[in-house]
Design goal:
Distance between the termini: 158 Å
Strand order of the largest sheet: 4-3-5
Helix content: 55-70%
Radius of gyration: 58 Å
Order of helices and strands: HHHHHHHHHHHHEEHEEHE
Oligomer: single chain
Number of helices: 14
Mean pLDDT: 76
């Protein structure tokens, strides 16, 4: 391999190592700067911890450290720097005896160490007052359990021992009547004194069971409400159904009669036969004008329209064909034909045929009142 290339590669590796070390020092310096800034702010605002009101001081200390992104380990190591020299040894002993702990554990150790001078600490008296007043009765079972545990954990070790045997009993006193009845039923034990199991583990299991049941009830309620909402949404989205149609009487389009339909109407048949009207594209038209006839239901039908248009009576008409002799009384031969208008050519032809048949008349006959004079 080329010696020059090896030399360049070696120098590159050295540069990378130097850069990594530089970045590490930079990060360490940045962490130290953030920690120093948080400590300085804490001391300037709250002064050094003097052994009183540890709960309040730790709350402020934790807030400042978290805002400056200081890790838990550094928070523990730096705490002795904000403590007055008189009690700094107590803090160092806690770290040395208990070794490495989490911040929450370290916080608990500090509260126990400086318990006596902590105004915010929960004493046995204040704890029992909280239980007696049922200040947590409006909480859910699970929330009440957490609140009870949080207050109980703030008691001094000696106070915890004095009431630890009554822990389950005190919790039942904290609960409202409804929750107390449910827990008493779940904790019932015929072998235990008082008929109720007093082990704290049993109470935690009962609370967990009630919490699950409560979640199931809420889920069922939500599902029922969802069903109602879906049904309402479907009702709104579904097309509105028209009211059922009532069967109306079918009228004849020609004469407006309810006794028959158009296809059974004799008057319409006669009008078609006599070429008074005609069908075109399924519609009835007037022969005289060729115009389509409008429907006229309830007002006499199409027949009334035709009568009005033609200005003539469309009712049945009888035409008489008579034969008369000059020397004898006249003999009338009647041929009645029901028509809707003036007699058409067909009627005239039929009249002439009657005359010819009776009289042998051969001359043309063309008059509305056909009379044959027999000699």
């Amino acid at each position: 391999m080329d010696p020059e290339f090896e030399d360049q590669q070696e120098r590159s590796n050295e540069l990378l190592k130097a850069f990594a070390l530089f970045m590490e020092l930079q990060q360490a310096g940045a962490k130290e700067m953030r920690s120093t800034k948080a400590l300085q702010t804490m001391v300037d605002k709250y002064d050094r911890f003097n052994g009183r009101n540890i709960t309040k001081y730790l709350r402020a200390y934790k807030c400042k450290m978290e805002l400056n992104r200081v890790l838990d380990k550094e928070m523990i190591e730096s705490f002795e720097l904000v403590v007055i020299p008189e009690i700094r040894s107590q803090v160092k002993v806690l770290c040395r005896v208990h070794g490495w702990v989490t911040w929450n554990q370290f916080e608990r150790l500090l509260k126990d160490e400086f318990f006596d001078d902590d105004e915010e600490c929960v004493t046995k008296r204040s704890f029992l007052e909280w239980v007696e007043q049922q200040l947590g009765r409006n909480l859910t079972p699970n929330d009440l359990l957490r609140e009870f545990e949080a207050r109980f954990s703030q008691l001094s070790p000696m106070e915890k021992l004095t009431i630890d045997m009554r822990k389950t009993e005190l919790f039942l006193l904290t609960a409202d009547e409804a929750l107390e009845d449910k827990l008493s039923l779940l904790l019932a034990d015929s072998n235990a004194e008082g008929g109720i199991a007093t082990e704290w583990k049993n109470l935690e299991e009962a609370i967990a069971l009630l919490t699950k049941q409560r979640l199931i009830d809420e889920l069922m309620k939500t599902m029922k409400e969802l069903k109602v909402d879906i049904a309402e949404l479907k009702r709104k989205l579904s097309p509105t159904r028209a009211p059922p149609r009532r069967d109306l009487p079918r009228l004849c389009i020609w004469c407006d009669s309810v006794d028959h339909e158009r296809r059974d109407c004799r008057e319409l048949t006669e009008a078609l036969r006599n070429k008074l009207v005609f069908f075109k594209e399924g519609k009835i038209h007037l022969t005289k004008t060729g115009a389509q006839i409008n429907t006229n239901f309830g007002k006499g039908g199409m027949r009334k329209v035709v009568e009005t248009t033609l200005g003539s009576d469309m009712g049945p008409a009888a035409y008489t064909i008579g034969l008369e002799r000059k020397d004898k009384p006249s003999v009338n031969v009647e041929a009645k034909v029901e028509l809707k208008t003036e007699p058409p050519q067909e009627v005239m032809v039929r009249g002439a045929e009657v005359i010819r048949k009776v009289t042998g008349w051969t001359n043309p006959v063309d008059t509305p009142s056909i009379q044959g004079f027999v000699p």
